[in-house]
Design a protein that fits this description.
The chain is an all-alpha fold and about 450 residues long. The chain is built from 17 helices and no strands. Helix 5 (about 130-160) runs antiparallel to helix 12 (about 295-300), helix 11 packs antiparallel against helix 17 and helix 16 (about 385-415) packs antiparallel against helix 17. It starts with a helix and ends in a 7-residue tail after the last helix. The model has no long low-confidence stretch (mean pLDDT about 80).
Amino acid sequence: MNNYSKKRGALLVTTLGSFLTPFMGSSINVALPSIAKEFAMDVILMNWVAMSFLLTAAASLVPFGRVADLYGRKRVFVYGLIVYVVSSLLSATSASPILIILYRAFQGIGSAMIFATAAAILTSVFPLVERGKVLGINAASIYLGLSLGPSLGGLMTQNLSWRSLFIFNALIGLVAILIVFWKLNGEWAEAKGEKFDLIGSVTYGLALVILMYGISLFPHDLGLLLTTLGALGLVAFIVWESRIKSPVLDISLFRKNVTFAFSNLAALINYSATFAVGYLLSLYLQNVKGLSPQDAGMVLLIQPAVMSIFSPIAGRLSDKIEPRVLASAGMALTTVSLFLFTSLGDKTPMSFITANLLLIGLGFGLFSSPNTNAVMSSVKKRFYGIASATLATMRSVGQMLSMGIVTTIFAVYMGRIQITPESYPIFLKSANLAFIVFSVLCFAGIFASLARGKLRS
């Protein structure tokens, strides 16, 4: 097989793999009410259908990134697709709340294996001068999944039932597996022969699960306790990793590699500041503005659609222009958009909301691909898997932090009440405060992005 065919196969299979998880994540949110109704779930159990996936994915990303560097990135990617397909089919046949939560947890593990290796495979196959372009295409597939999830997921749930979403995901996964065996020859395991750090992996996974679960319980005392324990567990993990010969995560990547450290920090901040925007606006549009779920979904499509258009362009530009310049510009645009949303009120015109979603989509599109390019190009080949996994972990933890911020603000200002016309004023104040916090976070992220230094000498 010639090099061009190998490149094309790698791009096609990783694009399909990267589409799966965001599509599942955004479509399942539309399907949750139907799932809860069928199984008579309370709100806590319903939340765990989404939470179980996020927790297992975040906890296993870094260990699987290390496994991929040791034993082969294609191997871990294929096994991840198989786990994802099987767990999707099992989810479609779920007969109880506990079973679907369990199967979703396994689906999260499969997703982690895919995301821990997708960018690493692309970085292994494509040279530096083409890397930004293909990572941009990969990012566009993620945003395409986010874009199609609410609309296509709602359509499938309404006409074919929520189970069809899992079957659809399984079919795409099967296609990806066939393409791997047909088009993707070769293997990449630059850290082959080194030992796998089991103690560090277990410590990391448990600490992150406890931390993220604690954040989901804020502002209750148990949430604070678990968050503290999880943070202490991560400190213990860092100390352990600094002392052993073959760590699951080489801490020196953060200590000695400024570009790697600050690019990951910028990603964490960006996701923390932006992930809950769609959630807040969905509540606002359907309650305060009185839009139907379908119409609200169409409005919210604007942001990920713009992301999917501009990510490949920004990725291609980052092959020629310093990634920190493009990524920092994107972060700045996102900050402006978040700040403008702090004035959201019941009289805010839809044209303002639409224009601002365009702006935040452009900002995120400019940030994501160049930032990924900076992370993957700042490490040696033997660390591609762990670099890809670390970046994906920043995304998962950032998403949880973003929702944790909103949950805490709502709990403090609104309490356990429903959003009704009487509570609209306090809801708007809570949303405005959340956007203020996000604006400040994103503003700080500009400096984290700029601090990464130059990628090219």
